[in-house]
Amino acid sequence: MELLLHSFGNVFHPSVMLIIAMGVAIGITIGALPGLTATMGVALLVPLTFGRPPLESLAMLLGLYCGAMYGGSIAAILVRTPGTPAAAATVLEGYPIAQRGEAGRALSMALFASFSGGLTGALIMTFMSPVISDVALEFSTVEYFALAVFGLSVIVSISGKSIVKGLMAGFFGLLISTIGADPISGFPRFIFGQMDLFEGPPFIPTLIGLFAVSEVLANVQITRATQRVLAAVDRFFPSKADLKASWKAICRGSVLGSFIGAIPGAGGDIAAFVSYGETKRTSKHPEKFGTGVIEGVAASECANNACSGGAMIPLLSLGVPGDAVTAVLLGAFVIQGLQPGPLLYKEHIDIVYNVFASMIVANFAVLIIGALGIRLFAKVILVRKAILMPSILVLSIVGAYAMRRDVFDVYFMLGFGVFGYFMQKYDFPLSPILLALILGPMAEANLRRSLVVSGGDFGIILTRPIAVALLVLAVGSLIAGFYNHRKIARRLAEQERTGRDVPDE
Amino acid sequence: MKRRSLLAGMAAAAVGCMMSFTAQAADWPAKPVTMICPWSAGGGTDLLLRKFADSLSKITKQTVTVVNTTGGGGAIGHAAIMRAPADGYTIGMITFELNSLPPQGLIPFTWKDFDPMMRVNVDAPALTVNAKSPMNGLKDFADYAKAHPGDVTIGNSGPGSVWHIAAAMMAEELGITAKYVPFDGAAPAVTALVGNHLTAVSVSVAEVRSQVAGGNLKMLGVMGEERSSLFPDVPTFAEQGVKATFGTWRGLALPKGVKPETKAQIQKALKAAYDDPEFQAFAKSAGLNLAYQDDKAFEKFLEKNANDVARVMRSLGLAKK
Amino acid sequence: MNRANFVCGAIGVAVGGGAYFRTSDFPADVVMKIGPAFFPSMLAGGLMLSSAALMVIAAMEAAQPAAPDAEAEPFRLSLGDGRVRAVVTTLAVLAFTLVLVPLGFIPTSVIFLLAMMALLGVRRPLLMAATSVGVTLGIWLIFEKLLVLTLPAGILESVLY
Prior knowledge:
The complex is a heterotrimer. Chain B has helices at 2-26, 44-60, 75-83, 97-100, 138-147, 162-174, 186-194, 205-213, 260-275, 277-286, 295-316; strands at residues 33-37, 64-68, 90-95, 114-123, 126-130, 153-156, 179-182, 200-201, 217-222, 248-255, 290-293. By secondary structure, chain B is α/β, with parallel strands linked by helices. Chain B folds into two domains: 28-123 and 247-316, D-Maltodextrin-Binding Protein, domain 2, CATH 3.40.190; 126-240, D-Maltodextrin-Binding Protein, domain 2 (3-Layer(aba) Sandwich). The longest helix of chain B is centred in the first third of the chain and has 25 residues, at 2-26. Chain C folds into two domains: 3-64; 82-160, no CATH class. Chain C is an all-alpha fold. Chains A and C meet through helix 2, helix 3, helix 8, helix 9 and helix 16 of A and helix 1, helix 2, helix 4, helix 5 and helix 6 of C.
């Protein structure tokens, strides 16, 4: 206990706090720039920490991690481009809110939800690591397959007006996720002789193309030189009414996010979509989702930030990274001569406590720096569209290019930009493609790994209770989604007939 | 106006090229050096190369930039190194995949299309099992596999990856049959073994290091030429009567066609960077096993390695017919 | 009949069918029952089914009145037409990508920004010059200096390094 307090004391030292704040500020910037993910930010700064004391290096990187998770929401809300993949679900509600001229409202809720989720994740990590990491280890390939299927069932919830179109988008996304080397046999599928496709469709360029480029293509058509979106940026704390509407979503998202983060291989992107889907499913007015509902922003943002704390759990206690960012952080520990895992708890418990404290401090830093920045960020949409749109294009091109230094990826991005533009024009939802690209490979590879182990026998799935439970949940969520969808269709039809909003039940 | 400045820029660039050309003969490096890494930022190869570049920069007093040209399972980066201008200002890090991609018909070139400069590191795989397993050596493992045919699963880091080939070599030498379960990288395979969902993994010592030290996993044998400096009490395969050695390697190479006198200068600078205590200290703390070979020895090593890999891949059905 | 949806569905069926056809020459896995072709062919089937469903629904639906702005406005081949601007934007990104490596990021980006702003109707040269140079340098600094990710230097190679 004394050691705990002492370690926390070290983190509260002004110089360490300053380093965390610096990490958070860099993280928010990186997160807000489309194409630069939290993973990449941490990866690029890891080499700089070599030769510095462990506390400083880790504090900086953890700050960056938390900052970037929040930063992704800024671009999602303001310019409809998820700054990081984890913010893709935030686009669904955040952007419509900003388009109504209430950017400040969405940004402040995203900040508050990020903070609440992040803090919950960090606290769960501090107090429940050993229990949760034992559960995470129970996950074999069969459970991963079931988890992916469960995640895919969310597609029904994010399908927009037409489930058939949502399913088409989903199947198309799943189909293109099979491009590249087969995960089990290594056979190159659908690559048409392009070695650039060998590792699968490049994810970040696809994301930027579908969301950012398609939006720019739609915008240049209506832009007059002077056109701007009016934005009320009058707050950096959500209003009481918004908080009241969102507290359930925040609680649910924080717990869901922490847990999904703790499962190795499942990260903030999945958590955000699942949390959003659940919030929509349990909402009293699901028909309003997609038009800018504040609890939708809260649900996805708190879940993806809670993931950071969750993902640290298996990293610290098992030495197994919980998501892509923590996989890079593992490298940072190793450079410091520290081996995360059971041994870290035995030999360097002070470092473990330092990490706990840094995560908690980092979340407060996100809240403070984020609040100071909101005015500045929201200025972005006050910029004339004739200047903003070309700038977004340059950022998109660089973001798509920089990951692999490959112009192929820029062409790919442009292709998906045009494709995404037409999808939207004909009312197809974009997010199912994204969800499919994230979860498709996870479902296929893990099912086939399971079958390698079982010698081709599908019965292996029934021998694993967690997997069966997840698959039952997936079916339940699908049925509920369809049922919900019919309710939404009925309400919308009624609204059209009566010409006014139907009051909540 | 715009066109004129464009022309001026092009002229300046041309002059710049000529200047560097004349400088090249006199002294290397006269301008910044680029190093190509065929793997993405943040990975093991990238960290190693970035640290090496720091040391090289310190020694040559020139900027050394690391560029990650990734994709195609290493194919794109290796192709970029091969096609880089042969002026001595682009050096590439070549890795094991340069020998495993050609048999699969995925790249139309081999190590012979490069000028290998030096081998930097070799990491040997280990046969690792869960700590709760009753097995204590390769013999136990072979006995278990023979008693339970069809039950042995060995996790690796991907289809056709270095550790997939390692597992196949192990099985071949031990005379057993096993199912190879490819994961997306070594880390998930190790996790699955910790959760007791596999019989063994065949990944490198560095990749199982923390779990072995933490008492979750144990190594039955190391496939290197000698014991691992991290775990000196784990015997090698050879010590247990299985004579195969294998490992992944990383080295530095130039595109073909660099002038011999420039090459000699580069060689000297690279060796000095390799000997830099800071670089050595980094490799040690990261658990990367440094294994220097000069250009001649490296070429011989590559020749043998390429043949071994091609043979095993054919037997695994991974090679293109 | 809803023509747009019917055509979308037809495209979906075609893409699914094409993918299904391609999976037929994926090698079979000798050990497992499901090889590289299993998932893609199943997914292609799913895409075809859902697309066919869309076609059926579209065929049964009453004809939608065409969107007023699309049909009422005659197509004019001028920059005043939004669709022309969208096509020009697409071509501009294509051009950016083509010259990015030979010309280098900084000149390409400055020229691109100037051209795009002109296309979107900005008519103040000073503002245009200041923003295009400012945005370009800002992005360049973040990538090159903060993240140590090199962007193509192109013709400025000798100046920048």
